[in-house]
Amino acid sequence: MSETIDTNDLGEKIVRVLKTIYDPEIPVDIYELGLIYDVFVNEDYDVKILMTLTSPNCPVAESLPEEIREKVKSLDAVNDVEMELTFDPPWSQDLMSEEAKLELGML
């Protein structure tokens, strides 16, 4: 019998990885910045990440999703990673966590 992996536990590991990736223009990780809208893990350990950027003209529009995909896919339990970029709803500072706002001196 193969080892069963808890998808909730895997989701937490994915979030930990996401918190190591920073927006190059803002010194806050992409998760706390509110760029990650959702993370889905299915029973085959395929991951889908729904994310946005701070603006449609973001200079890392090509490279940031690929960096995220590669880092999440490096987790042993992850089979595959699909990235979906959306601008609906558009990113705003309201999506930032309290931690991010504090880091940026907005509180």
Automatic annotation (TrEMBL):
Bilayer-spanning residue ranges: none
Pfam families found in the cross-reference section: FeS_assembly_P
Superkingdom: Bacteria
Chain ranges of the MIP18 family-like domain: 12-82
PANTHER family (UniProt xref): FE-S PROTEIN MATURATION AUXILIARY FACTOR YITW
Record-given protein name: FeS assembly SUF system protein
Gene source species: Aquimarina atlantica
